[in-house]
């Protein structure tokens, strides 16, 4: 790709824009597109045959080909053999007539694993329908309702499926929308008009559908209907993973913490097949139980024993040559630590499998590869990463924080500098690749460039203290963000490249003023080292913007590359062309311009260049995040 360049100038609340820094920017956004095939939803529901069960401790039923798509098994509609059905613990396989029987117990959710070549029905909001809750007396009293009383075990629960050539194709596009996490209707509107609008405009995922990866709302489960509304125009089925903000906080313990979720979306954990991939959704958030007054009692990130038992039983029915995609709200690991407490137990279950794990939760974007090692992982029982771990970014970015762009949406730079968007897993047989699409942008926007100097680090520390300490007195002066003084060059100054798609198998090269390209250093190489942390490991482009408005900032990063600036750079404007190649061989090129002065220019009023690549400069305000 040829480099693109745009001068970025923008002011906060009428303050003059800073000048001197130029960044490459893509053109107008272009929504990814598939083959143009329209989505023909199969609307329906699971068939519950009311009546007395033959055995109150055994649930029976049929998985059948619903040829007329009325959700009822008619005489001419045959059962489907070899399909798995589970109660969340045991896994049964249908016989030659599509019949199954499985142990029954109170508070179970029974679900079918969609086989490739078929599709489950969806409701009017495109939410996949493939499960039945059995809770005879219903949930204990819960603020958001939980599960209504289901009564005694029914005579049968039948699972309708429609044939689908699309779900059997080897090539699949599978968007993963993590942390929509709206706390109110204003933020729900930001999600609708941002990354969710991008998804609604795409037509490449009709067979795989969208997987919402948890923290779909922010604590207030009365927002679930609004959440369903903004995803209702999806070009494919929508499935949901629960997160720590999707729980019934007034539940006494984890037993009923997902009752409202299960009633409105489906099981807390389940599986389905598309192409040559077996997708497993796990619930790795265990609720501690409500505090006094029904308040949030906190949680731990772990996979309970029943799920691990189910996972072993589920995978026992999956051919060894299939790709196993394990998705859970919390990552198994991120670049900082082991996140899921019993990660080693999960890896034992996945041993020998061709697998990838995907998580959200952290509002960061990461691509961690097999063979990566970290000191903190070893301390948490993971000596070496066995499978690719993707961390999916967030629809909400940094919780809808920061200034508003010209579309009226919060910039919401995440703490690792990435921006709101959606991860897409591209499946090709039993192989996969991944791409992250920033809200409103094309896929080729993958780099943010900046300059990290002693002056900037001193300012950042003071600004954070001032911002988080009540903003008393005058704000620390940043001055011109794109100016580097001779004094800066005499200290440690780096050109930084935040390569969103970067991994340990990526390469970043920098050419200054047309000179020979020099390879930049990955700041967290994942070779058994401890966490690299400090302002010298920050993405200055994003951190500056969050420090001057609102939102989190970090001093570590899984995908930051740095190149020391030569101490003998002449005064004047310099150009750095940065080329980055990811682990899939995709290349991205951006250009940054900065100015070297003999002495630092007089400090200016604190300002923010709030514009970003691909956007028309605009004045921005400040919003608070949740």
User: Which ranges are low-confidence, i.e. pLDDT below 50, for 5 or more consecutive residues?
Assistant: 1-36, 601-626
The overall strand count is 33
Broad structural category: alpha+beta
Arithmetic mean pLDDT:
90
Question: How many H/I helical runs?
Answer: 11
Report the sheet-strand fraction.
25-35%
Helix content: 10-25%
Distance between the termini: 38 Å
Spatial shape: elongated
Q: How would a textbook summarize the main sheet?
A: 7 strands, mixed
Radius of gyration of CA atoms, rounded to a whole number: 26 Å
Task: Write a structural description.
With about 625 residues, this protein is α+β, with helices and mostly antiparallel strands. About 15% of the residues lie in helices and about 25% in strands. Strands 1, 2, 26, 28, 29, 32 and 33 form a seven-stranded mixed β-sheet that branches. Helix 9 runs parallel beside helix 11. It is elongated, with a radius of gyration of 26 Å. The two termini are about 40 Å apart.
């Amino acid at each position: 790709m040829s480099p693109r360049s745009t001068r970025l100038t923008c002011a906060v609340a009428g303050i003059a824009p800073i000048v001197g820094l130029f960044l490459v920017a893509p053109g107008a956004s272009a929504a990814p597109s598939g083959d143009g095939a329209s989505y023909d939803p199969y609307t329906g529901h699971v068939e519950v045959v009311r009546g007395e069960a033959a055995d109150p401790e055994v649930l029976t039923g049929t998985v059948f080909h619903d040829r007329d798509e009325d959700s009822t098994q008619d005489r001419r509609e045959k059962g489907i053999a070899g399909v798995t059905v589970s109660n969340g613990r045991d896994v049964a396989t249908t016989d030659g007539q599509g019949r199954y029987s499985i142990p029954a117990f109170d508070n179970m959710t029974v679900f079918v694993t969609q086989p490739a070549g078929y599709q489950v029905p969806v409701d009017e909001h495109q939410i996949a329908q493939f499960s039945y809750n059995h809770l005879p007396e219903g949930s204990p009293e819960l603020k958001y309702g939980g599960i209504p009383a289901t009564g005694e075990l029914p005579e049968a629960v039948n699972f309708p499926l429609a044939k689908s050539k699309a779900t059997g194709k080897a090539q699949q596009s599978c968007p993963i929308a993590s942390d929509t996490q709206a706390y109110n209707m204003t933020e729900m509107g930001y999600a609708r008009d941002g990354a969710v609008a991008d998804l609604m405009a795409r037509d490449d995922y009709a067979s795989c559908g969208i997987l919402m990866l948890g923290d779909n709302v922010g604590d207030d489960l009365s927002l679930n209907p609004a959440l369903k509304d903004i995803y209702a125009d999806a070009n494919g089925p929508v499935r949901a993973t629960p997160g720590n903000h999707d729980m019934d906080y007034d539940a006494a313990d984890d037993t009923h913490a997902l009752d409202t979720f299960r009633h409105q979306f489906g099981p807390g954990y389940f599986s389905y097949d598309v192409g040559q991939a077996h997708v497993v959704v796990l619930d790795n958030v265990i609720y501690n139980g409500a505090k006094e007054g029904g308040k949030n009692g906190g949680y731990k990130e772990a996979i309970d024993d029943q799920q691990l038992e189910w996972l072993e039983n589920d995978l026992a029915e999956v051919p060894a040559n299939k790709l196993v995609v394990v998705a859970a709200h919390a990552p198994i690991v991120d670049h900082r630590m082991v996140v899921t407490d019993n990660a080693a137990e999960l890896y034992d279950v996945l041993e020998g499998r061709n697998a990838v794990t995907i998580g959200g939760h952290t509002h960061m974007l990461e691509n961690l590869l097999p063979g990566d090692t970290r000191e903190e992982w070893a301390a948490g029982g993971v000596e070496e990463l066995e499978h690719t771990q993707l961390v999916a970014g967030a629809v909400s970015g940094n919780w809808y924080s920061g200034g508003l762009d010209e579309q009226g949406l919060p910039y919401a730079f995440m703490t690792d500098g990435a921006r709101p968007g959606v991860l897409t897993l591209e499946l090709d047989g039993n192989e996969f690749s991944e791409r992250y699409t920033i809200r409103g942008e094309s896929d080729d926007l993958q780099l943010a460039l900046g300059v990290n100097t002693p002056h900037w680090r001193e300012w950042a520390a003071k600004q954070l203290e001032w911002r988080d300490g009540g903003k008393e007195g005058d704000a620390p002066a940043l001055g011109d963000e794109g100016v580097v003084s001779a004094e800066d060059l005499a200290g440690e100054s780096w050109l930084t490249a935040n390569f969103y798609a970067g991994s340990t198998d990526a390469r970043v090269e920098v050419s200054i003023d047309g000179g020979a390209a020099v390879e930049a250093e990955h700041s967290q190489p994942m070779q058994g080292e401890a966490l690299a942390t400090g302002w010298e490991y920050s993405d200055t482009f994003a951190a500056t913007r969050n420090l001057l408005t609102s939102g989190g900032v970090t001093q570590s990063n899984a995908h930051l590359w740095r190149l020391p600036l030569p101490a003998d750079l002449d005064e004047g404007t310099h150009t750095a062309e940065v080329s980055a190649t990811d682990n899939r061989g995709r290349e991205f090129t951006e250009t940054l311009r900065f100015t070297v002065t003999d002495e630092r220019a007089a400090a200016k009023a604190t300002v923010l260049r709030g514009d970003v690549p691909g956007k028309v400069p605009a004045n921005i305000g400040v919003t608070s995040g949740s």
